[in-house]
Specification:
The structure holds two protein chains of two kinds. By secondary structure, chain A is of the alpha+beta class. Chain A is built from three helices and seven strands; from the N terminus they run E-H-H-E-E-E-E-E-E-H. Chain A folds into two domains: 62 residues, no CATH class; 72 residues, PH-domain like. In chain A, helix 1 packs across helix 2. The two termini of chain A are 23 Å apart. The chains are: A alpha+beta, B alpha/beta.
């Protein structure tokens, strides 16, 4: 089974920033409530930074991290904690989809017109070549 | 010389991620697209509302009509013998999917017949742009409609 996993710096930065500003706000609010003053020092900043990196990484793994594995029979796509497992035989059509910002997805259509999208650009596979590979799997599974 | 497949891949890239975005938001591409009993090598569909950030999106929503558009391509028809059947399928698909205008691109590694070129230069059908692309000489002939004349610079993806 082929496996792709990609670190998405933008999403990690988003998670880190969320926790950094969140913790800063909580620290400032807590200080103000307790002592009517806000303590600021380098050790506090460094602890905040380290905590934000740790929590940001945890949140990134929970929500955004991509792992994709596939073989002739089907694929497993994991986005954060969500896991989606499908067989190629469940799909009838394949397309290359551009939702914007230069990212390309391989879209798979099911019989009931439901769509599954594989984020090819984010996984750092060549979107066009990967699309043809997927088309081959879907055609083979459908006996075409 | 570019092969037909390489040309179509470049055309797909140009329409979805390159200069084609100035004409329409071509966002989905199908290969071996079956349409009313004929098969197109490639079909790219999209709309006229361009994406962007804040002001571009607002301007697009206020100024642009929300039309659907498509680009169909099938290779290797130097005498344009298959064109009437293909155009009939395109027209039916446009009607079914409420598509306001379409491009039909016909890349060919050999020369188009003089009759085919002449018929294309006379063709003025208003909601279709048709381009004959000679991959050997890199010559592009389009039909005379506004959509046809406009498409030539976007299907010129030889480099």
């Amino acid at each position: 089974m082929k496996k792709y996993s990609s670190f998405q710096a933008t999403n990690f930065l988003k998670s880190f920033t969320l926790f950094f500003f969140g913790l800063t706000f909580l620290w400032a609010a807590g200080n103000y409530i307790a002592i009517r003053d806000i303590l600021i020092s380098w050790p506090i900043f460094i602890v905040n930074l380290i905590l934000s990196i740790v929590l940001g990484w945890w949140y990134y793994r929970q929500r955004y991290h991509l792992v994709f594995s596939y073989d002739d029979d089907g694929f497993i796509l994991q986005v954060g904690k969500k896991i989606m497992a499908n067989r190629w035989a469940e799909f009838t059509a394949v397309s290359l989809f551009h939702p914007g910002r230069g990212d390309l997805f391989v879209r798979l259509y099911q019989n009931n017109n439901e769509v599954v999208e594989i984020p090819a650009s984010l996984l750092r596979v060549h979107p066009s070549e990967f699309r043809f590979e997927v088309m081959g799997f879907v055609d083979k599974a459908a006996g075409r | 010389m570019l092969g037909e497949r390489e040309y179509l891949l470049k055309l797909e890239y140009n329409l979805m991620l390159g200069g084609g975005r100035w004409v329409a938001d071509f966002k989905e591409s199908f290969w071996n697209f079956s349409c009313n009993e004929v098969i197109f090598e490639m079909m790219i569909s999209g709309g006229m509302r361009l994406k962007g950030f804040a002001l571009s999106r607002l301007a697009s929503a206020l100024l642009m009509p929300n039309y659907h558009a498509a680009c169909f391509a099938y290779p290797d028809d130097p005498g344009l013998k298959r064109l009437p059947i293909m155009l009939k399928a395109v027209r039916r698909y446009m009607k079914d999917q409420d598509i306001k205008w379409s491009w039909v691109v016909i890349p060919c590694e050999s020369a188009f017949s003089p009759q085919a070129m002449a018929s294309m230069e006379k063709n003025e059908v208003h909601d279709l742009g048709i381009a004959l692309v000679n991959l050997h000489t890199q010559e592009i002939v389009t039909n005379r409609s506004y959509i046809g004349r406009r498409m030539s610079r976007f299907v010129n993806t030889f480099k």
